[in-house]
Predict the structure.
Amino acid sequence: MDFALTEEHRMIRDTARDFAEKELVPIAEQVDETREPPLAAVKKLAELGFMGMMVPEEHGGAGLDDISYVLAMEEISRGCASTGVIMDVNNSLVCEPLRMYANDEQKERVLTPLARGERLGAYCLTESEAGSDAANAKMRAVADGDDYILNGTKIFVTNGGFAQTFIVFASTDPEKKARGITAFIVEDDRPGVRRGTREKTLGIRGSTTYEIIFEDARVPKENVLGEVGRGFKIAMEALDSGRIGIAAQAVGIARAAFGRALEYSKNRKQFGKLICDFQAIQWKLADMATKIEAAHLLTMRAAWLRVSGGDYVLASAQAKLYAGRSAMEVCDEAIQVHGGDGYTQGYHVERHLRDAKITELYEGTSEIQRLIIARRLIRG
């Protein structure tokens, strides 16, 4: 296997790295403390083509591949995890389902402004009784003439505070359970759509996690995404590919924590010498670097399989499972390397740990990833 990046891949990585260093690292702490979304930075990301990376150029995107996306996501998330997840949701959970299932009119009307970053999107799947059991959705969509009337509440909607376009999953035929779920394109200013409670999250505080409430929201049938009753398939495919982006986010957060720990160890003195000269610290650094590299390679493999048309579902689950756990372990050790300083906000590593935890939870918990992996192994 050729691990060498193409010139285009290197350019994308370097552009994202430079942007993260200049635009995101300086604001990341403020974003965390104020819980304000970094929309000015997101606008600049859009100008770079990073908000619709895999969307064809004719629909406003950059026309790049999943490998480019992984490289960019790692760097952006290293700079600011909140910015990284805003970028991830818009790319993976909104633009990708539209790219794959929207008709020509929907692509022109909805996908193009999202890919250009003129509008931002969110993915509305989770409900209070339909988290890991997404097929248990209670939200209803009832046909009424040329429209559907939507009623229900979605929770844990990332980007929910500022997104203008929602991909919403609702049951059009409850008796069919998963086969009765349909996907809808819903604008945030449509009558009957409103924002509810904003969650006070442990990390990624600038991404705004909201509940979105639908009360007799009338949505035209032309806003059905794909076919009626095929929404669950669309939702699962979005998550299968989206996990690659979350794995990349986890790697980026881990890289940020490791970089700070390495630098700290080269400057901090105890017992008359730098702590990087102690074997106990050296072993921590070695293990951290190895876990990051392994998580990166698993993520790149999943991206490569998707680019090459292979079966990437198992690989994306493995990448997310390992990258999420590794990010937590690396960030925890980064705090340990810092000692008491690591427990304070001024050294940033405690923020990286808080940001890392979500990568084990959203777009499928680690337990769900293990189920996916086990079923694939058993069924072949």
